[in-house]
Amino acid sequence: MRTVANQAHQQSFQAYQTGLQLMQEGKFEKARTIFEKLIATGPVEVLERCRVYLSVCHSKLQQSSRTFATHEEQYDYAISLLNTGDYEEAREHFDAILRHEPSADYAFYGLAALESMTGQVEECLAHLGRAIQLNPRNRIQARTDTDFHDMIDDPRFTELLYPETLL
Fold first, then answer.
1. Same domain, yes or no, for 76 and 114?
2. Of 25, 77, 110, 145, which has the fewest beta carbons less than 10 angstroms from its beta carbon?
3. Closest CA to 140 of 117, 109, 111
4. Which of 124, 127, 80 is nearest to 105 (CA)?
5. Which residues contact 34 (CB under 8 A, 6 or more apart)?
């Protein structure tokens, strides 16, 4: 009798590890199914972790099913991610906008802000330059945008924002 219980216990831990691996691979639907079963029948030692991972799976599945009516709506969402520190997902949304609308100055501007905030100076300058090239009003906006605070001491940044002083 004890070996049957040990075997069930071992199978539960194997399922738990499989669920973790599926999460790491981005297969959240499959992982969700495993964690739901473990919560219902698994050993007490993994219940709390399974609840946490199940919550993560639900969150990731909800994110991937998000649709936007316009690119501007997706941009607003990306900015909200940027403001909460979810830089990678924000970048994915800015990049997605640019794949569909390569002249979206606001997406280049968003990428520039993200890169300023994450210390990627060269990328920030390139994307901000492109945003300004596509829409010169971005120059004025960037002058007062606190997201570019770390760029203030870079002379190339100043040249981008105040080209009239070079004349």
1. yes
2. 25
3. 109
4. 127
5. 15, 16, 18, 19, 22
**In the structure, what pLDDT confidence band is assigned to residue 134 with cuts at 50, 70 and 90?**
very high
Q: What is the pLDDT of residue 49?
A: 87
Query: Could you give the CA distance from residue 110 to residue 91 in angstroms, rounded to a whole number?
Result: 8
Token representation of residue 89: 């997902």
How does pLDDT run across 24-41, given as a tens digit for each residue? 888 888 988 998 998 888
* Range of the structural domain that residue 85 is part of: 71-166
Residue 120 and residue 42 share a domain: no
Q: Select from 30, 64, 98 the last residue of a domain.
A: 64
Q: Are residues 90 and 148 in the same domain?
A: yes
Could you tell me if 12 and 34 lie in one domain? yes
pLDDT for res 64: 58
pTM value > 0.70: no
CATH of the domain at 135: 1.25.40.10
* Distance (Å, whole) CA 33 – CA 160: 51
Residues 33 and 31: their CA atoms lie apart, in Å, by 5
- Residue 65 confidence (pLDDT): 56
